[in-house]
Amino acid sequence: MIYPITAYGTPLLRKVSDEIAPDMQELPQIIENMFETMYKSDGVGLAAPQVGKSIRLFVIDASEMSDEDENLKGFKKVFINAQMEEQWGELWSFNEGCLSLPDIREDVKRNSDIKITYFDENWVKHTENFNGIKARIIQHEYDHLEGKLFIDHISALKKRLIKGKLNAIEKGKVHTSYRLNVYKK
User: Fold this and answer.
1) What residue ranges of the chain have pLDDT lower than 50?
2) Containing domain of residue 27, as a range?
3) First CA to last CA distance, the chain
4) Which of 46, 96, 107, 118 is found 20 to 30 A from 161 (Cα to Cα)?
């Protein structure tokens, strides 16, 4: 099942997500649906809040970016109840976008290296270090679990410059190739 993407302006996107219990019956189906939604929307990562679920879950499949970075070949993972342990290294800029903020792309500075603890889809616990694009994608998706968006990492001036686009997204006046769920106030 393909979920609609939660649009900017929806309060759920600004909420810290809840932990997932290991006995959550519908979790395997949610994971499958999130991958299907991400592929249909041409994303490389998708967090549960982006599909209207306030749970600590995100999925990544950056394999399609392996032309640009060979390390991304086969980089497909499920992150359950992730906790960022550490961020370090060079702050570097990369142009980011987000399915919840269609038509907006901005250069965002993030750390080059991270350490994160998470459970995979089989409830196996991992503590791993990631760097480069992998670390960036994980940080972007992890931010969603913490109620943050990539635009929170840009300057006040840049935010003012995109205010019109943000207002258009909040009102649903944006075209996407995927279903967008706009918050009704």
Assistant:
1) none
2) 5-181
3) 26
4) 46
